[in-house]
Amino acid sequence: MTAHIETAELHGQPVLKLQTPDGAVALISLFGAQVLSWVPAGGEDRLYLSPDAVFDGATPIRGGVPLCFPQFAGRGPLPKHGFARTRLWEVSNTRAGKDFALATLRLADDEASRALWPHAFSAEMSVSISGDRLDLELEVDNTGTTPFSFTAALHTYLKVREVEHLRIEGLRGLDYCDSADGDAIKKETGVGVSIDAEVDRIYHNAPPTLLVREDSRAMGIHSQNFPDVVVWNPWEDKCAALADMPADGFRRMLCVEAAAVREPVELAPGASWWGRQSLVAM
Burial level of 96, CB count in 10 A (0-12/13-18/19+)? Predict the structure, then answer.
């Protein structure tokens, strides 16, 4: 028996469903190349998708793993988090084996993207599941004749049982930009980071492995070629102001995002870049 991949719909939007024989399942929206759900083998969904998320083919989908490209947040002239998350991607490759399923989606520049960001590019998002593991890889190619720079992040919404009862390990000693405090630069002093108020931080020179530990389970987060990690939770007041989140949604989610933010990625003509994030359910 091998894994299989099929096309489906979720709230009227096209998705790919990846499934392995051991029961691991992932749903990927073609809108934004966004993973919406990931259930590791024998487990429960470990990604948070807001029950109030909008599926209209134009509005960013709240939850899962949105892709921020070619701009992170409002740090530049483009729409917040860039345009990749609100574009329809094409499926360029799928593969299934005895214990894995993989899909690659592709986005290239067109007239609409060049009106916002005047560069020739090709981007691929690859998603693979196997057992208790989800692997995400973003690759960007400069297909034009002039250099360009970009920032990017895999805006991963982890589904948690109670955000106040978790701890993020692996960040001690790192400098971070505190976006909730006027972009002040601070140093992380705690052995484990707890969430008991709004958190919006960009940690620099992040280690390759972090651990989000809950009472009876954990999530290993491994990144490659992403120098930063973003930790975000809107907390009560800002969550209540989000039309596509329930008022208590902040208690069930935590964003831990592999990112390249502080130093934009510079790509010469013909050059390519990749970054990877892997989640391992424990």
Answer: middle
In a domain, 282, yes or no: no
Catalytic annotation, pick one of 162, 257, 263, 266: 257
3-state secondary structure of 116: helix
Q: What is the pLDDT of residue 248?
A: 97
Task: Confirm whether 219 is domain-assigned.
Answer: yes
**Number of folded domains in the chain?**
1
Its domain, for residue 9, covers 4-277
Output the domain CATH number for residue 79. 2.70.98.10
- For the stretch 171-185, pLDDT in tens is 999 999 999 999 999
Q: Which of 4, 155, 162, 169 is catalytic?
A: 155
46 Cβ neighbours under 8 A, 6+ residues apart:
38, 39, 40, 134, 158, 159, 219, 279, 281
pLDDT digits 0-9 by tens, 193-216: 999 999 999 999 999 999 999 989
Clarify whether 257 is annotated catalytic: yes
Q: How far apart are CA 246 and CA 234, in angstroms?
A: 12
Query: Does 149 reside within a domain?
Result: yes
In a domain, 9, yes or no: yes
Quickly tell me which residue has 């989606």 as its tokens: 105
Determine if the pTM surpasses 0.85: yes
Please report how many Cα atoms fall inside a 13 Å half-sphere around the Cα of residue 228, on the Cβ side: 22
